[in-house]
Amino acid sequence: MEEIQNEIQRLNQSNAIKGPVVTGLKDIFALMTKDRLSFIAANCALAGRSKLKKQELADALYERIAEPAYVRAAFIAAEPKEWELVSRLLKVPSIQDNAIMLDAYLFLMDKGLVFSFMERNELFIAMPAEVKDAFGKLHQPSFRKERGEHQLVLRYIEAAANLYGICPVDKVIAIINEQNGSQLTESQFNRIRSSVSDKLLTWNVQRGLLFSDNLDGESLDDYEAFLESVKDKPYYIPPKEELLRYADIDYFEMTPQLEMLKHYIVQRLGKSERLAHALVDDIQLACAMEEPLGVIMEEFENRSINLSKKQLDELMPLIIQVHNTTRMWSTRGYTPDELSAMRNQEAKPGNVVQFPSASSKVGRNDPCPCGSGKKYKKCCL
């Protein structure tokens, strides 16, 4: 933990202006090198910046950053953690926080909207007075309405990329409109996603396709081949609240099957809750990525957990059940069990990805799959 804190402080120091807090934009620029000003100018898309001398560059940046329209566009694109910082800075001269994470302010600083200062080993974040003045000139109700709509679309984009892996843009737009009674157009969609194109994203849009950066493939042809392989499968589209949970790249459903596996790891293998939780997380991810069973079992080996034959025999049904109740990209967000049940006996061979397994359904009076020896209804049910 101490090493992490030291690294955070080192990164914060490397980006900070050395000295007391200054809140006038021209005064801040006077403390910066031309290279630093040029970097901000590039993020502002300032035309002709390479031909400007330092003072000319500072003057041009001042005019750009003090524009209400510029401030509006950047603040609308700010992520929730960035907007939280903006909201705090609008009310105070500066914030002192040595432990603040770079991703909470780096985008804003690159845009020239906030700056960091290091004085006597204390880190301060401040917003120039000119930026506050520009924001104050905005019509607040319309700004907040547009920001809310903008952020909602971005959350849907992130959720669709995480849940489906790849999805046509027109399908994402249709889901947004259906769940919100809106009339989002493709041009509006493209304008919103382009507004965050200079951010570090976990998704991309090309050739009318939204896809996760975690999708294996070397070209758009690979992605289109994947889309072709799932074209006959329906999309799992949960209610809005549930769907938007997938905007968090780390989110997954903690199913009863995962709980049973975790219970077994704690009770039968004698491992801590913390280790069991981490192990279950990794097994769920491996199942979601459709890794082979051997790769999934390596998660135990990686943690130096040596399993006896009896334990392996007990674990296999649990892991198979987890696999078959995990949402996957190849089943368009459905679990293999859900898709199989929907198609009943009409499913074509190979359309549902499953390990060879017994049924995942456990009777109330059957022995609990966790291996405790108790009946399921008195153990993990």
Automatic annotation (TrEMBL):
Transmembrane spans: none
InterPro entries, sorted: SEC_C_motif
Pfam families: SEC-C
Coiled-coil zones: none
SUPFAM superfamilies noted in UniProt: Sec-C motif (SSF103642)
Matches recorded under Gene3D superfamilies: 3.10.450.50
PANTHER family for the chain: ADENYLATE CYCLASE-ASSOCIATED CAP C-TERMINAL DOMAIN-CONTAINING PROTEIN, UPF0225 PROTEIN SCO1677
Name the record gives this protein: SEC-C motif-containing protein
